[in-house]
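Researcher: I'm preparing a figure for a lab meeting and need a structural model of a single chain. I don't have an experimental structure, so a prediction will have to do for now. The sequence is pasted below. Please return the structure as C-alpha cells so I can convert it later.
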Amino acid sequence: MSEPSDIPAELAGHWRPTVVLKRDVFSTVERGRFTTPNGERDAVLRRIDGVPWWSYPLARHLFLRERRSLSIVAPLGIAPLLLYAGRQYLVRGFIDGVALHVARPIGDREYFRTARDVLRRLHRSGVTHNDLAKEQNWLRGADGKAYLTDFQLAFVFGTRSKFFRLAAYEDIRHYLKHKRSYVPEALTSIEKRILAKKSLPTRIWMQTGKRVYRGITRGIFNFTDREGGGPRLVNDAPPMLAALKQMPGVKDATIVAFPDRRVGTGLYAFVETSQPVSEQDVTKTIAALNTAAPERIQFVEALPRNAAGGIRNEVLQLIAMNQVDLIDQLLTGDTERALVSRIVAGRQNLRDKFSF
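Model: Understood. Here is the structure written out cell by cell.
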C-alpha cells in the first residue's frame, strides 16, 4: 500500500492531523482538526489516495456510498456531520464518544432507547445502514446517547420498496442483537420474535454469499476479527501472550492492535511486571516462536481491571491508538484514573501521533 502524503494539497490550511485511527486496503482514517467558516473543530478524514490500485475501484465505490448517505443523515443529529467531500477525501465531524464494544453499556436501557430512536430517524430519511452487526459502528457519546458511524455500505432509497423494508428489518435485528448482549432483560416479546426470525435474503446470504465474503475478506484482505486487528492479533498474539506470562518477573500481559503507518496494523503489548524485565528479553522470548515481536512493548506496574478482575482491554486499546482523551468517560474512580494516567504517560506508540 502506498503512503499518502501527510496533508492533501486541497486540504492544506484546513486540515491538521493528530492521529491515525485506521488503515487498510480501502482507506486511511485520521483524526484531526478541520477549519470551517465557523472556526476549527474536531474532525475525521477518510482518504483513499493511498490505497492499492487493485482495491481502488471498490474503495471508491464505498467512499461514494458514505458521502451520499452522510449528506442525508448527518443533519439529523444521529451521525457525524459531513464537513467536506472531495474526490478522494471526506471530512466528517468527530463525535465525542466510544464504540459499543469499548463502552460496553451493560444494563443501560436509556442508551438502547436512544439507539432505537436513531434507527427510526435513519429509516424515515430513506437510508439503511447495512453494517450494524459491527459494534464499532455504534457509538456511545459522552452524553450517553447512541450515534452511528461508517456508512460505506449504506443504501439510499427513493421509495419504501420491499428491498428497503428488508434492509431496515435487518438494521433493527442487528440492533436487537446488541441489546440482547447488554440489556437482555429489557427485550420485549415482539423484539424476541424479531431476533428469532432472519429475513429470507439474510438466510440465503448466510448459506451462500457470506461464505464467499469470508473467503475474500479473510483470505485476500486478511480481515479476521471485528476490531480490525488482522491475522497477527488473531493468530500470533495468543502464543505470544502464553510465552510472555511464563517469563520470570511477568505477572500478566495483554496485547491489542493499533493502526501503524508502516505495517498497516501493529501489535502493542502491555506487560505487568513484579521485577525488572527488559524489552530485549521479551523480544528474545517471542523470537523463539518464529514470529515478529509486537511493534510496541510497555511495562506497567499494574494492568487496569474491571470488578470481575478482567483486564480492561478497551482502555488499553485507546491508549495504544493515542485516543487518550476518550478514556476518562470509561473510568470508575480516582484509583483507576491514577493508574491509567501513569500508563498514558509512558505510552510507546507515538509513530502515528502527528505533532505540529
